[in-house]
Amino acid sequence: MKRNKWLILVTLPSLILSLLLFIIFINVQVLKPPSPPNPRNSSKSTMYPNQTQFSLMIGILTRADNYDRRHFLRLVYGIQSSPLATIHVKFVFCSLTKPEQRALIALEILRFEDILILNCTENMNSGKTYTYFSSLPHILTRKYDYVMKADDDVFIRLEPLASSLKALPRVDLYYGFVIPCASMNPFVEYMSGMGFLLSWDVVEWIGSSEIPRENVFGPEDKLVGKWLKMGNKAKNRFSNKPAIYDYPGTNGKCSHELIPETVAVHRLKRWDQWLHVLEFFNVTKGLKL
Ligand SMILES: *[C@@H]1O[C@H](CO)[C@@H](O)[C@H](O)[C@H]1NC(C)=O
Ligand SMILES: *[C@@H]1O[C@H](CO)[C@@H](O)[C@H](O)[C@H]1NC(C)=O
Ligand SMILES: *[C@@H]1O[C@H](CO)[C@@H](O)[C@H](O)[C@H]1NC(C)=O
Questions:
Q1: pLDDT at site 50
Q2: Residues with a CB atom less than 6 Å from ligand 1
Q3: What is the pTM of this model?
Q4: Mean pLDDT over residues 207-221, rounded?
Q5: Ligand nearest the Cα atom of residue 285
Q6: If both were cysteines, with which of 8, 34, 172, 237 could 186 make a disulfide (CB 3.0 to 4.6 Å apart)?
């Protein structure tokens, strides 16, 4: 009897202690957020080295002074990836014009290596898109199967985008959202500037042909369609409707409600619109704050 009491006295505290430690351990495990991607590798596509089926560079045309937008978009794209494709997101703008840009953008380049500076002055309709595509073969250190041009007010979902490209030709391709809004025929007119994609051979053609060089002034995205028509290029075309569209209520028939199979939503001008989109696509679902 006495012996049993002694045993309980000795074992009970250690039992309680173990239980406490166990509970703490469980809590720590549960509370621990999902491990973040390697911050030095802002694109998770490096998780699948050399196993991807194709490569894609997304150039987001923006302005040097849009520091906050770049910061936000780096977060948005840094947490996305696709096992199908190596995807690099880069920010593209014209020559720097202010002293502070030289230091601040140098810092960004040193830290992120995701900026392309074109030899141009910022403009709406005088050739930035031409300068972008025609410069790429010279300024990139590698080739990509596809090159995209995107706006900085569009949310692109990399996994559905890569899936939608999987079965498409790797050459002579023009992919996007065909204008006019209601059109389902990508072989007339052109792809909306919100986000369209060309295969590398077409990018090289833009850089070397006289057709684009002599047709530089005018609505940029419409011109791309014109060059391809004049050059009899991009025999492979794909307009990805309804997966690409303008944010609900912002642009007539180019807009519709958010849908699960979305590849890209455009015209995200306000934080409440970004918030709606991030929530709808469960982007931050892994971490409830
Ligand atoms: C990113 O990851 C790849 C593959 O793991 C590695 O080779 C590369 O050095 C990393 N880049 C940086 C900047 O850490
Ligand atoms: C930039 O463009 C201007 C005007 O087209 C040209 O004169 C200049 O040589 C270009 N600079 C570089 C570094 O290519
Ligand atoms: C977001 O998560 C909810 C709940 O799990 C799910 O029902 C919904 O289909 C998800 N939405 C998308 C776009 O994947």
A1: 64
A2: 40-41, 46, 49
A3: 0.80
A4: 95
A5: 3
A6: 237
Q: Residue type at 58?
A: I
From the CB of residue 211, how many other CB atoms can be counted at a distance below 10 Å? 16
Q: Contact, 91 vs 60, CB < 8 A?
A: yes
Pairwise CA distance, residues 245 & 226, whole Å: 22
pLDDT in tens, 71-81: 999 999 999 99
Ligand lying nearest the CA atom of residue 259 = 3
The residue-averaged pLDDT of 200-210 equals 98
Residue 58 sits in which domain range? 44-280
- Give the per-residue pLDDT at 45: 46
Residue 1 lies in a domain: no
Which ligand has its closest atom nearest to the C-alpha of 45?
Answer: 1
Preceding amide of 180 cis, omega within 30: yes
Q: In Å, how far from its chain's centre is CA 71?
A: 13
Domain membership flag for residue 86: yes
Q: What is the CATH number of the domain that holds 225?
A: 3.90.550.10
Residue 17 within any structural domain of the chain: no
Cα gap 73→59, rounded to integer Å? 12
pLDDT at 58 over 80: yes
286: Cβ below 6 Å to ligand 3? no
Mutate to test the pocket of ligand 3, among 282, 283, 284, 288 (most ligand atoms within 8 A of CB): 282
Whether 258 lines ligand 3, by a CB cut-off of 6 Å, is: no
What is d(CA 10, CA 123) in angstroms, rounded to the nearest whole number?
80
Report pLDDT digits (tens) over 163-172.
999 999 999 9
Considering the domain boundaries, does residue 124 fall inside one?
A: yes
